[in-house]
Amino acid sequence: AQSVAQPEDQVNVAEGNPLTVKCTYSVSGNPYLFWYVQYPNRGLQFLLKYITGDNLVKGSYGFEAEFNKSQTSFHLKKPSALVSDSALYFCAVRDIRNAGNNRKLIWGLGTSLAVNP
Amino acid sequence: SAVISQKPSRDICQRGTSLTIQCQVDSQVTMMFWYRQQPGQSLTLIATANQGSEATYESGFVIDKFPISRPNLTFSTLTVSNMSPEDSSIYLCSVDDRRSTDTQYFGPGTRLTVL
Predict the structure, then answer these.
(1) Full pLDDT tens readout for chain A, 117 residues
(2) Cα(B75)–Cα(B111) distance, integer angstroms
(3) CB B29 within 8 A of CB B96
(4) Strand pairing of A64-68 and A56-58?
(5) CA A52, CA A50: separation in Å to the nearest integer?
(6) Interchain CB distance below 8 Å, A101 and B107
(7) Residues 37-76 of A with CB under 8 A from B
(8) DSSP one-letter code for B1
(9) Which of A28, A95, A109, A110 has the lowest tally of Cβ within 10 angstroms?
């Protein structure tokens, strides 16, 4: 069965420090992996994705994520956190073999990031 | 990326009534999805809507309660029928944009409160 785990409900980091939001996944085949961000009272915004190729992917707002196949992880990172990065972050996965109505994403439970000034 | 709008943005409804939520996309897309999200929590997929075919519902969701229309490649509606306070939630529309290699993009959401 496909699944996504975000082991931390909340992450606190001081402004200017590096941040990491963790995600591990389980799929039968090769994964498509995604990170989304949700600011308070807003919809979800796409941050970045891994489809194939370079394991380090760069996305919006200075975020990046590293695909690690052996550890089945796709942790989200940023070298220097901003207060404005405070939001809810979701990791999602899809097995690339899924087609048609099975193109749905499997979602993690989300991690609340608080960046303190 | 696709630009998605939803109407209404929020509503307060009485128990037993129905509300239809509209989702409009600025480009033609094959697949549209309807989600439910409690504030601060993860997303739960209600159904997948393809143009020209019946929606595919996830376990725990039925067509009588959440009828969906998909009349063309840019528009869909979700109706929440015979509402109860347990239906209070945020309802999100998303589209699978193949131009962006299978990335899903989301509308701003509809915040529903049932009294």
Answers:
(1) 789 999 999 999 999 999 999 999 998 888 899 999 999 878 899 999 998 889 999 999 999 999 999 999 999 999 999 999 999 999 999 877 666 556 789 999 999 999 999
(2) 19
(3) yes
(4) antiparallel
(5) 6
(6) no
(7) 42-46, 49, 51
(8) -
(9) A28
